[in-house]
Amino acid sequence: MRCCAIRWCFCAIKLLRRCSNARWPSVLGELHIHPVYPHAEGVDEIIVLDTHNDNPPDNDNWHTDVTFIETPPAGAILAAKELPSTGGDTLWTSGIAAYEALSVPSAKLLSGLRAEHDFRKSFPEYNTAKPRRNINAGARRSRKNPPLLHPVVRTHPVSGKQALFVNEGFTTRIVDVSEKRAKPC
């Protein structure tokens, strides 16, 4: 199953419902407990994203999930309980395909560079403190998730293919170039 999931895997919701144990995804690797979003009752590894008119999405831009940790998750599993009649789409893309689409000079330029990924870019302290009404909660989460560096181009551990590993959600700068060139456009 792990080899099949390297690219993508979409399952019918009926299959997910048949799995009574909520921890079945652990066969793919270690499960992540998200530091901000609310968890499903009794299962910290499952987050609940309940968006509606009174609670609009807070992360509706292109991003790769959880790149602010040393070893980001290998994937994500989404199961919608309720969908709007229009919109609400989740888009998937490939860092491997993005890298392979680069010109040779661009690929050479990016190889060996490092980018800073910062939890606070998508989860500023004022925002992460709101749900719990605790002004110190956001600061604690930021301290537990300090900025760190990842290679701009990563090698997939199973396929061996090169992939771009930067995203609007968490990447703040490329550290190995001049400050002027490091800032996003």
Automatic annotation (TrEMBL):
Stretches the record annotates as Disordered: 134-153
GO terms assigned for molecular function: metal ion binding; taurine dioxygenase activity
Gene Ontology biological process: sulfur compound metabolic process
Domain TauD/TfdA-like: start-end pairs: 27-181
Enzyme Commission numbers on file: 1.14.11.17
Keyword Iron applies: yes
Any single Gene Ontology cellular-component annotation: cytoplasm
Keyword Metal-binding carried by entry: yes
Transmembrane parts of this sequence: none
Pfam families: TauD
Keyword set, alphabetical order: Dioxygenase, Iron, Metal-binding, Oxidoreductase
Protein family per UniProt: Belongs to the TfdA dioxygenase family.
Protein name: Alpha-ketoglutarate-dependent taurine dioxygenase
